[in-house]
Amino acid sequence: MPKLKVDGxxxxxxxxxxxxxxxxxxxxxxxxxxxxERLSIAGNCRMCLVEVKPGPPKPQxxxxxxxxxxxxxxxxxxxxxxxxxxxxxFLLINHPLDCPICDQGGECDLQDQSMAYGKGHSRYDxxxxxxxxxxxxxxxxxxMTRCIQCTRCVRFAEEVAGVEEIGAIYRGENMQIxxxxxxxxxxxxxxxxxxxxxxxxxxxxxxxxxxxxWELKKTPGIxxxxxxxxxxxxDSRGRQVLRSLPRINEDVNEEWASDKTxxxxxxxxxxxxxxxxxxxxxxxxxxxxxxxxxAIARAAEGVTGNAIGGLAGDLAEVESVYALKxxxxxxxxxxxxxxxxxxxxxxxxxxxxxxxxxxxxVEHAKAILLVGSNPRWEAxxxxxxxxxxxxxxxxxxxxxxxxxxxxxxxWLGEDIAALGDLPDALTQATDVxxxxxxxxxxxxxGYGAARQTAAALGAGFGxxxxxxxxxxxLELGFVTEGGLAAVAAAAPKLLFxxxxxxxxxxxxxxxxxxxxxxxxxxxxxxxxxxLPGAAYTEKPGTWANLEGRVxxxxxxxxxxxxxxxxxxxxxxxxxxxxxxxPFDNLGxxxxxxxxxxxxxxxxxxxxxxxxxxxPRGGDVSGAIVYPITDFYLTNPIxxxxxxxxxxxxxLLHGETFAxxxx
Amino acid sequence: MADAVHIPDEAxxxxxxxxxxxxxxxxxxxxxxxxxxxxxxEQSAVMxxxxxxxxxxxxxxxxxxxxxxxxxxxxxxxVGVPYMRVYEVxxxxxxxxxxxxxxxxxxxxxxxxxxxxxxxxxxxxxxxKGLVKGKTTxxxxxxxxxxxxxxxxxxxxxxxxxxxxxxxxxxxxTIAILEALAEGRTPKPGPQIDRQVSAPEGGPTTLxxxxxxxxxxxxAW
Lengths: 662, 221
Fold this sequence. Notes:
The structure holds two protein chains of two kinds.
Chain A: E1 3-6, E2 9-12, H1 19-25, E3 49-53, E4 60-61, E5 72-74, H2 78-93, H3 109-117, E6 140-142, H4 152-161, E7 166-169, E8 176-179, H5 192-196, E9 202-204, E10 217-222, E11 231-237, E12 240-246, H6 259-263, E13 277-280, E14 283-286, H7 289-300, E15 308-312, H8 318-330, E16 335-337, H9 350-353, E17 367-371, H10 375-378, H11 380-391, E18 395-399, E19 410-411, H12 424-427, E20 432-437, H13 438-441, H14 446-457, E21 460-464, H15 470-475, H16 483-489, E22 494-498, E23 512-517, H17 522-526, E24 529-532, E25 541-544, E26 549-553, H18 566-577, H19 586-596, E27 604-605, H20 636-640, H21 642-652
Parallel strand pairs in A: 1-5, 15-16, 15-22, 17-18, 17-20, 18-19, 20-21, 22-23, 23-24
Antiparallel strand pairs in A: 1-2, 3-4, 3-5, 6-9, 7-8, 10-11, 11-12, 13-14, 13-24, 25-26, 26-27
Helix pairs in contact in A: 8-18
Chain B: H1 10-17, H2 24-35, H3 46-61, H4 69-79, H5 83-92, E1 104-109, H6 112-116, H7 119-128, E2 142-147, E3 159-161, E4 164-167, H8 171-182, E5 190-191
Parallel strand pairs in B: 1-2, 4-5
Antiparallel strand pairs in B: 1-3, 3-4
């Protein structure tokens, strides 16, 4: 624990900390470009120079200098000021003065730091360097003349994303950042380099020239593209969410977000359902709310009990699922199901469906067994945690078809029967985590076998969900014994679909289907009545992520057209049906939820208790099929997004796109 | 970047070099190189292997060789390193050629000591023999590159042609060397004037007695 003085302030920092971290501990701001607390230290921008005694009589790069006992650091001396001004002048020598046309303008580290630490003028009047643009794929736009070669993107690609495709070629004045042979970076995390880039060299391609940061209204939200529950900041202007950026949450997403989280938002203004529709004579015709409600009331006449059912889709938030469950309850129905992907797992207690080791806890595992899960696609930010565990020496074993997970994996076979024959390296390891995916749960007995394996190994057990709304609905008890097949077997006459788009609804052909959702996608195609709902950016909602972590989002914009928040639709409909729901506003609804389901009352993880004895699984076999076939097109929002379609076509299906001539 | 070399089209190089593999002699040599490094540190062998690959390409094409993309990838897979990391190495070092060169790669040093001692004359000689910077002559014999210091400043000006240095050049001696190479003769490498390597011109100026015997200077102290 070295003790040192920063500008006369005594600080004590943990062993291994750098001088820069010591300065931050003392409350001193150190300008930097290449240093990033989640990446390795490069020390090549020199912006963090400070004066350090004892040491050579010259400024030192604080990011790469270990803090030591008795150091005296000055961040306010004449030497430090002159060093910063000098470095800034050098950085700006080759940096173009194109801030007015640069997308980074207004949120640019170089802009801010040249204002704060620069000289205000340049003595350079030679020609500036210019660098040709590089192609980095459909997400990242490059203006490489602006690059100051901090190499954050290179380090991110290598260390966090695990795709070593970005690098620095040539040297000295000619050094350039590029992807290998200018092919698109094949990472589902490539959008993060845009945030990491301290200048405008790497900017967001879909967002190019859309808005200025100071025009945007910033709303804290929760992402629904996967079950991780990435904390996002929704930047909106007028009625459109223009971008989704990660917020820092060390327990969930650190400060990363997948490309789907970032760029599916352009699907929110396309293909939207903006008014109610009623199927008349086999054709969907637009209707008023009243006409739609009357159509449902006619279908509901004389129908009671389990002749009415409900399915909660992948993106549904807790409030609307609860409202639907209450409405079904008013009819005496308990025919409701959230496991609409057909997976079957134990729903007797929260620990049986949650990701119990927690996302952050994955980092500390010594061995990880993936059963029927491709975390790179199902939860990219869990995959980055597994990568971190591997850096600390963990071994990863997997059962399922071989895919590139960006780290070395010992594949045990494609058949889940491989659970019966685990290698010694796994059975003798300590701190094991078994991660079961939906690929295992769709095999009969697969869930039980995975959990028994975890129990036999003394391992932590986590279920890797793929849908943001699933865990919240499970916590509400929105399940039926036997799962989706049991609901189909009950042949309901009236079926409510809360944004169910990933399920084959042909099993419910006999039912009158009411679809509450946002996009004209698979669910709406099958519906008899469509009610326009609100997307995740358009309602204050509660989601529980795969750990069971309750997170609340705020409304960024209002729903399009006649769209309403889903629970208010159900509340209005209930009055027409004569089963008025007992809440009139969000506060009352949330109070009811908190009363009925204490685990959903507060944000954060409500302890779920230990897992009890694993249910009988016995010998199971069956080839594993991963639930996600196309990472970029997993929900109606993403499917409506031109960016996601382009990513899918280019990165997964190998289509090539001619670049527009400029 | 205006004088950057033109890297050949990727599809063409893949068609030509896609099936690159070591010749039996080079496979043995690659094994020897890899064995120099401890297990788990094979990536350290990347530079000698790239050099070996470039020489093999050179032998194939009767030139000094270059590194087409498939060859870079072949070397990367030999040492288990991502392609990008090897590509960075290739672009960093000027000794690896990113584009085909001629049979003789004439690298003229233009850094200050050579420039002060007359590298302009050397370049003029090259130019008058039809060599153009960054280009290969139409007969495929010579590629001219101006490089930075090659570490032979005591013998400035100098050129490196393939694996040999030619030092203490003048306009005339440069012409002579280029003509000799073009005619298929082997000019004498090293200093082109009467001088033993980088010893003083006209013989030693100090420690003269040491030339003939191991002289004991202690009495002179």
